Amino acid sequence: MTFNGPPKLAIIDPNTLAVLGLKQLIQTFVPFAEVVSFGTITELLANQPDQFVHYFAAMNVVLENRAFFTQHRHQTIVLTLSTDSSTQLQDFHCICTNVPEKELVRSLILLVNHAHGAGKHQLPSMKSSGEGRILSDREAEVMVLIVKGYINKEIADMLHIGLATVITHRKNIMEKLKVKSVSALTIYAVMNGYVDINKI
């Protein structure tokens, strides 16, 4: 099937709070995609389900509608609350949502790298449309340390700069990249080759 325009992603989960959080994270991760949420499979089926590149579906939704999701197995990402692989559905990509934000971001990045390794629906990097580098060398160093989990004081000590300088760099990085969270910064850093996902 050929998809025209920006990719559309569907979230099917009756838990409104979980949907809002995941939707925001996905839109940070894939800013060019359109993310549409549904509380039930009935809502999805009433809205041309074949227009969506991927379905992020709660485990109970998948279990109750196994025939549909089995037919769309390669497009389906099952949202599970368990990290135990023995409780996850076989033959489906599964992401545990009951983990710290950093782990969830890492899982999403790994999923994209795995699922799109052959180039199908390849996701472009989040680089600026402008020419040239966005960050200075020092800002890139600070960003990498932020993504690796160091606090401002530790970054200042490691780079032999003042705490106020680190805070200024951090503010400038967020403004230049137009991101508002460490999760979004992590996504940018990994997608653009600043940090190896296995080292965060």
The SSE order reads EHEHEHHEEHHHHH
The main β sheet shows up as: 5 strands, parallel
**Can you count the beta strands?**
5
Fraction in helix: 40-55%
Strand line-up in the sheet with most strands: 2-1-3-4-5
Tally the helices: what do you get?
9
Give the terminus-to-terminus CA distance: 36 Å
The residue ranges in which pLDDT falls below 50 over 5 or more consecutive positions are 116-131
Radius of gyration: 19 Å
Q: What share of residues are in beta strands?
A: 5-15%
> What structural class is derived from the secondary structure elements?
alpha/beta
**Mean pLDDT, nearest integer?**
82
Model description:
The structure is a single chain. This protein is α/β, with parallel strands linked by helices. The chain has nine helices and five strands, in the order E-H-E-H-E-H-H-E-E-H-H-H-H-H. The protein has helices at residues 16-29, 41-45, 59-64, 66-71, 101-115, 137-147, 152-159, 163-177, 182-191, and strands spanning 8-12, 34-38, 54-58, 76-80, 93-96. Strand 1 (8-12), helix 1 and strand 2 form a beta-alpha-beta unit. The protein is elongated, with a radius of gyration of 19 Å.
